Amino acid sequence: MKGLNTTFFHERLLSFDDGAYDVIYDDARYLFRKETHLSGKLIKVYAEELGNTNFISLNYYPQTADGLLKPCEMPDEKVIDFILRCHVLYDTAGGIVCPTTFGVNR
């Protein structure tokens, strides 16, 4: 899918710093990872549902064709919906509870 640089998807994806986050999507908990490469020319996202086999995987090229999305073996709509609707877990004071909990027993 091309021409995403003027969409909320683009803004939302760029709002995440590189790193790993615990997120909620459709009442399921995911480990969300974002990496930026090539001086911002490539953004990689991989999110896996904890305790299940569901995952989200995409490459996004913000400087190509006004924002070129390349999902990995899934529909564009699935990855766009995930980015738009996932929520980072927060505590009651508004702070991030666990931005990187992969491999940590809670």
Adjacency order of strands in the biggest sheet: 5-4-3-2-1-6
How many strands, what sense, and barrel or not for the largest sheet? 6 strands, antiparallel
Question: Count of helices?
Answer: 2
What proportion of the residues form beta strands (DSSP E)? Answer: 35-45%
Q: How many β-strand runs?
A: 6
- In one word, what is the shape? globular
Question: Could you characterize what this model shows?
Answer:
With 106 residues, this protein is an alpha+beta fold. The protein has helices spanning 8-15, 76-85, and strands spanning 19-25, 28-37, 42-49, 55-61, 68-71, 87-88. A six-stranded antiparallel beta sheet has the order 5-4-3-2-1-6, covered by helices on one side. A hairpin with a 6-residue loop joins β4 and β5 (68-71). The longest helix is centred in the last third of the chain and has 10 residues, at 76-85. The model is unreliable at 99-106 (pLDDT under 50).
